[in-house]
Amino acid sequence: MANGFSDRVLGAAGFGLCKAAISVAYITAMGSVSSSVGFVSELDFMFTMNMASFVTAFVVLLLVGTGRLRPGRLSQVPAVIALLVGFFLSATGVMTGLPVGATAALYGLLCGFALTVLNAAWLEVFAAESDATTGVCQVLGGLVVQCALVSVAPLLASFAASVLSIVAVATSALLLSRLKRKVAFPGRVPLLPERSDERFRLLQACLCLFVLVGVVGILHTTVLGSQSEHIVGDVNMWMPLVAATMLTAVVAGLTMRHPDPTAVYKGCLPVMLVLLSLLPFFGEVLGGLAGLVMITCYDVCGMVFLLFIVDRTRALGVSVYALSSVYSGGSGLFLAVGLGIGNALGALSADYGLSLLTLLAFAAIYPLALVLLVVLRRVYPAGAAGSRAEGGEPAGVAQVEGAGRASAVARGAGAGEVRAAAGADGERRASAWASAGDCAGEGRLRSADAGADAQAAVGAAASTGEASSDLLRAKIEPGVAPVVEDVLAAGADAVAARFDLTRREREILGYLARGRSARFIAETLVISENTAWAHIKRIYAKTGVHSKQELMSMVERRAGEGAGR
Fold it and tell me: Where, by residue number, does the polypeptide cross the bilayer (predicted)?
């Protein structure tokens, strides 16, 4: 997405208008109520909205998984209509004569469907930016716009808030339509990453968000109607929103290259545990402070998760619809479950005379601690043998340069020697690919024998069990030896075209795809090592990856996609 600065500003503004309208709908039950307890406006609305979000997300995931919904094909129109209809019905008072529960359920259905679809539609545009940082900055800008607009909403009457929300939704829809016309969406992308360690890291991030959502839901409904209702009732919702936006901006500034909800969770957890532990003893003293901090922690994690979606979909090459749907649908499900548990705790306290705040503390602390155990678990790519190499990468991955040098003696070697190099303990994958690249690079495999060596090298990479399955799925016709160099070059060309790399960046990408170090690249291209590093960092920023391993996997994946056509 090669948009200029003005388009990026419009993107941030449009996303902010959309988020502000959804926030108003969320807090005011589509303008049908004028007050709320924390972010719970009306329980019938909340339950219906969250379940509608979950069902919508499930349908989107099903469509993506079966190939019926490809990138760029998710229409915002039904969601925009749903929001406009909801705000219009609320502003005109057409639903006044109907039962309150039925009205709230209808508004919740419209809101839950709309927020799930619009989140996915906007995040897809940001993920298609020319570099990950630009997309992340637009999301952050949209959150700032949301914060500014929502802080003004309490000053407006319900009718005025509904009318302005209609204007915001319509304007946001026009801006999104404009931006989507300038986006080149990728072809079909997988639902989840292929590597188990990458899937587990996504699971960790999701659990951090979901448990916070559930705990905040428990907090709200547990204290509803009790003498402790002020814990969340005294919280004006724009206050945690402002605090969360500021903290998210700080987090984004510190981790722009790699926004991570698990880091936010680990930072917030000690504060939440202290507050929850003190609630049974000092609940009256803590009052709204406890609710403010808990809601702020949830908001920060949710906002950072939006940045995380944009960053990870680019780096892993997975569907933004999938991650966005997991975010919206999972949050909706866990919030509904949390609200239900809170209701049960309130009833349990009333029936058996148990301390309400003690029940709340136990119900909240245990899931928070259990998720921490999952978050602290470290998973390495298969074959890493649990050890870490310099720079924080698994052994056999971060040491690609060393493996390439060690296997340089295999230049022009036959299949047996390549397999022997590939079998070196701890460096099997790197050696196999470096040997294959070296073998292919000698005279561009001018002879049939060299082509056979390259084919054997691909087989050696496969025998290690570490090569990307995308690349290994490349079609191998009998009698036509695949040339590894050409396969990797095709993958590098595809990545360069997808992310608008310059000619020099494309050249350096080719070396990185073969595991070459910055020093090797500098010596080969007769440039300084600092210049080589500058190009490498720009390649990382544009492609949204954070390591050479991720970049190599991306090139292999693109090469496999090209070979499979």
Answer: 12-33, 45-65, 77-98, 104-123, 135-153, 159-179, 200-225, 237-256, 263-282, 288-308, 320-342, 354-376
For helices 196-223 and 288-316, give the axis angle rounded to 10 degrees.
Answer: 160
> How far is the C-alpha of 50 from the C-alpha of 112, rounded, in Å?
6
- The residues pairing with 394 across neighbouring beta strands, listed in sequence order, are 388
pLDDT digits (tens, 9 = 90+) for 338-351: 999 999 998 888 88
Query: Is residue 393 situated within a structural domain?
Result: no
How many alpha carbons fall within 13 Å on the CB side of residue 210?
Answer: 22
**Residues of the domain holding 363:** 5-376
Closest-CA residue to 268 (of 289, 252, 288, 247): 247
| Total number of domains constituting the chain | 2
- Same domain membership, residue 432 and residue 351: no
Rounded CA gap, 245 and 24, in Å? 16
pTM for this prediction: 0.73
In angstroms, rounded to a whole number, what is the distance separating the alpha carbons of residues 396 and 136? 31
- The answer to whether residue 221 is domain-embedded is yes
- Note the pLDDT tens digit of each residue in 485-506: 667 788 888 888 888 888 888 8
Per-residue CA distances from 64 to 61, 308, 507 (Å): 5, 20, 34
List pLDDT tens digits, range 17-73.
Answer: 999 999 999 888 887 776 665 666 678 899 999 999 999 999 999 999 998 999 999
